[in-house]
Amino acid sequence: MEIRSVCTASIIVLLLSLSSFLKPSAGAAPSAQLVTWMCNNGTFYAPNSTYQSNVRSLLASLAANASRSLFSAGAVGASPDTVWGLALCRGDDTNGTDCASSCLALAPDVAFGRCMGVKDVTVFYDRCIVRFSFRDFLASRDNGQVQTSASQDTVTRDGDARRFDALVVSFVGALADWAAFNTTSRFATGVMVSDQGFPTTSNDVVHNINGLVQCTPDQAPAQCRECLQGLIDDMPAVFNGNVGGKVLAVWCYLRFKTSEFFDGTPMLKLVAPQLQPPTSTDITPGGNGTGWRQHAATVSAIILGAAFILACISMVLIWRNARTQFAYQEDDGPASLLFDLPTLRHATDNFAEENKLGHGGFGAVYKGVLPHGQQIAVKRLDKASVQGLKELRNELLLVAKLRHNNLTKLLGVCLKGGEKLLVYEYLANRSVDTFLFAPDIEKRRLLRWETRYHVIYGTARGLLYLHEDSQIKIIHRDLKASNILLDSHMNPKISDFGLARLFDRDRPSTITSQVVGTLGYMAPEYAVLGHLSVKTDVYSFGVLVLEIVTGRKNTDLFGESAVEEPSTLLSYVWDQWLKGTALETMDPLLDCEVAEENEALKCIHLGLLCVQENPADRPTMLDVLVMLHGHESSFEAPSKPAFTYAYGDQSSLDDTVSGSDRRAGEVVSSVNGMSVSEFQPR
C-alpha cells in the first residue's frame, strides 16, 4: 500500500476519533463493548518492528474503508512482514462513521495491549469484528476460530428448556435463510413471539426471542448460509435453555436474546408454534376406542357444518358483489378478493388454448396477464365437475386466510356468468416434478443439490406453518412433487389445497370415511383405516424428500438383477440403508461433493424417519426443521418404512390390507382415481 494512502487513512481515523468527542452526547454513537478476543500465540513480532508498523497502518485503513461500506479487507506490507486483515461493522449500524469511531478505533487497544507482540489477533466487540494475521486467511476463509457465550439466566423446567432450544434453532435458521438469500448485506434481525411463556431462573416469564445473524457481505448466498449453518450446528452443544447466547466467528456470527439488543425495526417477525410435549395419545393403526370414534365424528360434523355455513355466507357475499370492479393498488397488490369476469377474460385472451397450463380434477389452469402487467394463474372450474366445486369451496375458505412465503398466494375469485374461477400468483418455473422427472436430462441437471435442499427446507417451513403457525390448523392431504411450485428464484411454494382439511387444534387425530389423495404419498394408517393427523402430511413429506434425493418417482421399480423381484422406492432406499450404502440411492446426475453427500445422507435419514409405519414414531415438522439444522449423527435410527415390499410380493400387501381393512384399501383406489391432480402446476 502506498505511504500516501496509509497516511490519509490514519488522518481519517484520527478525525473520526476526535469527532466522537466533539459530538453532542445526545447524538453520540453507541459505545462498543468488548466481548472477547483471541491472541493466537505461537508467532510474535518485536516491538517497533516493521510488522508492528504494518499492523497499525492496516487497522487504520480497515477502519477508514469500513466507515463507508461497513466491511473492509486487505493487506499491508511486503513479505515477510505482510499483514492481512478484515473488519466488519454490525449491519444495523446505519452510519459506518460511528462504527469506525466508536468500535473499530478501539481495536489497537487490544492489538497493542492484551495481545502485544502477537502476530495473529481476533477481536470481537458487540458492534464490530476485527482480525489481522501474518497468514493470508482471506484466501482460505477458515472459520475455525469460533467463540461462544451463554446467558446465566435459563428456562427452568427441562421440558420447557428443550422446547425453547428447538424454537431458537428454528428461529435462527429462518434468520440465516433471510440474510443469505434475501439481502445483499448478508445481515438479518428478527423477533419470534410466543404465546407460550417460558419461566426462567430470574423469575421472569419470557415470550419473545430476538435474533441477529450476519456474514461478511462479500460471500455468495450459499457460502453465507453454509457459514451460518456451521454455527447453528454448534448450538445444541453450547446452549441448554439459556435465554441468550452468541456464537461468534470471523466470517459470520449469530446472537439471540429474549430482550431487545439491536437497532431499528426487526426485519423478520415470526410467531412461534404452540409446542406440546409428545403424548402417548398420538395415533397408531388399529385400536377400538368406540367412544373416541364417536366423539371424533361429532367434532368432524361440527367442523364440516361450520365450514358449510361459512361457504354459504361467502358465496352469497361474493355473488352480491360480483359486479364490483376489481381494484388494484400499485404498492399493495390486490386490494380485494373479487375479480370481474371481463378482466380475467382479457388477461387470458378469453381462455385461449395457447395460454393453457394444464388440466386436472378441478378443471383447466390458464396463464394470464393483468392490465398493470402482473402475471396470474387462473383455475377454471369445469361446469360438469362436482369434485371441482368442492375443491373451489375448500380453497376459497382455507387458502384466502393463509399467508406464508412457502405457500402459493390466492389473489382472488370470480363467480359470474356461469364461471367459477380462482386466481393465483403465477410461478414461472412451474413444479418440482417438471424438473425432477423430466425426460430431458439437461433440464433435470438444472435441479442442482443446493436447489433440492432449498426445496426440502422451504417445503418443511410451509408445512410447519399449516400445522402449527397459521390461524387455522390445516392438513394438506395431497403433498407431492407436482404440488410444490417454484418461483423465478426456485423458491418452493405448496399449492393445490382442494383436498386440504381444517383440523381441530385440540385433537391429535381424527377419522374420516372419505380417503382422498395420491397413492404412493398416502400414509398407511390414512390409506387403510382413514386415520388423519399432521403425521399424514409428514409421511407424504418423507416420500417427497426421498424422491428429491434419488430423482426417482415413488412408483418407479427397482431391481439389481434379472432374478430379483423389482421393489418400490421405499423398499429400495430401506434396503440400501440396511446395507450401509444409502448414498448409492442418490440421483447420479448430482455429482455431489463430500459436503453435499453429508447433506444428502441427512435427508435420506430424515426421509426414512418420516415414512415410518407407526405415526407416533414420525417427527413433527418442527422436529424436521431442527434436524435439518443439525447433524445426522444425532438422529434416531429409523424403523422399517410402511409399504416396503417387492412388487410381486402379494403376501406383504395382504398383510397390510387384510380382513376387515380390505374394504378400506379398495376405497383408497376408487377415491384416488378421481382425486389425482394431473395438470401441470402453475
Automatic annotation (TrEMBL):
PROSITE patterns: GNK2, PROTEIN_KINASE_ATP, PROTEIN_KINASE_DOM, PROTEIN_KINASE_ST. Keywords: ATP-binding, Glycoprotein, Kinase, Membrane, Nucleotide-binding, Phosphoprotein, Receptor, Repeat, Serine/threonine-protein kinase, Signal, Transferase, Transmembrane, Transmembrane helix. InterPro entries: GNK2 (IPR002902), GNK2_sf (IPR038408), Kinase-like_dom_sf (IPR011009), Prot_kinase_dom (IPR000719), Protein_kinase_ATP_BS (IPR017441), Ser/Thr_kinase_AS (IPR008271). The keyword Membrane applies. Residues 1-27 form the signal peptide. The keyword Oxidoreductase does not apply. It is a single-pass membrane protein. It is found in: Membrane. ATP binds at K379. One of its GO terms (biological process) is response to abscisic acid. The chain crosses the membrane at residues 299-319. This is Cysteine-rich receptor-like protein kinase 10. It comes from Lolium multiflorum (Italian ryegrass).
